[in-house]
Amino acid sequence: SLGHNTPKRLHTILIALYIINLAGGTLGIIMMSHQLFQRQSRSVITIFIISLLVLHTFMLLSIPFRLSYYILREWKFGRFACKLASIIIYIHMYATFAFYVGIIIIRLFQLEFRRCYTTAWVGAVWLVGALVVTPLLLSYYGTSKMYQSSECFQFHREIQEAHMVIINYCLVGILVTVCAVLTVVQLLVIYRLAVKYWPDINSHVEFRAQAKSFFFILVTLVCFMPHHVFRVYYIQNYHLDKDYKLLLYNEIFLALTTMCCLDMLCFLTGIAH
C-alpha cells in the first residue's frame, strides 16, 4: 500500500505548498502595494520591488489553475492555458532570480547606480521575457509529443531530447555558478565588516545592508537551488519513473520555487529592505 499512498501524500504536499504561497503571496503583494503608494519612495531598490510585485502577481494568478488540476486530477482549461500556466512558473523563477542578482550586486559593490541604469536592467529582463522567451516557449513547449487534453504539466516526456537536455544543463550550470559566486563574495564581505565593526556591528548601516542583501541569496538557495539540483537527477533517471513518483517530486520542487513570492512579507518586516 506504500506505493499507492506515496503519490497521494505527494499530491497533498503539492496542494499545501501552493495554498500557502497563494495566501502568503497575495497578502504580501496587497500590503507591499499599499506601503509603496503611501511612501512614494524613489530609490533604486524600489524599481526592483515594483518589478517583483508585478512578476509575483502574474505567477499567483496561475496558481488557482494548478490547484484545480491537482485537486480534481483533471485539466479543464484547454491546451493553451496549460502551456501558459507551465511557462509562467519558469519565467517567474528566472526573472525573479535576475532581479535578485541585480539587488545583490548593487548592494554588494555599493554601486551608486543611476536610476536610468537600473531601469535599463529591469526593462531588459521584461523585454527578453515578454518578447523572446514567452513566444518561443508557447511555440515549441509541449509540441513534440501527443498529450491528452485532460492532462497538464506532463511535458517531462520532452526533457529526454538532446537539445532540451543541453538547455537544462546550461540553465542549472548558470544558476548554480552565479549563486555560488555571489554567496562566497557576500559571506566574505559580511565577515570583513563583522571584523571591522565588532562588537557593535548592528549599529553600522553598512553591515546591516549587507546582512539584508544575504537574504536574497538565502531565498535563492532555499527556493531555487533544490529544483535545479533535482532537475539533473530527474533528467538522468527519468526512464526509471514508471509510477510518476519522480514527476511528482519534480512538481514539489517546482512549487518550492514559487515560495519566493513570500519575499514581500519579508520586505514589509524590514528583513530585506
From TrEMBL:
Residues 24-267 form the G-protein coupled receptors family 1 profile domain. GO terms for molecular function: G protein-coupled receptor activity; oxysterol binding. SUPFAM superfamilies: Family A G protein-coupled receptor-like. The chain crosses the membrane at residues 12-32, 44-67, 87-109, 121-141, 166-193, 214-235, 247-272. It is a multi-pass membrane protein. The keyword Mitochondrion does not apply. It comes from the Eukaryota. The keyword Iron does not apply. Its main location: membrane. It is found in: Membrane. Keywords: G-protein coupled receptor, Membrane, Receptor, Transducer, Transmembrane, Transmembrane helix. One of its GO terms (cellular component) is membrane. Signal peptide: none annotated. This is Probable G-protein coupled receptor 141. It comes from Strigops habroptila. The gene is LOC115617210.
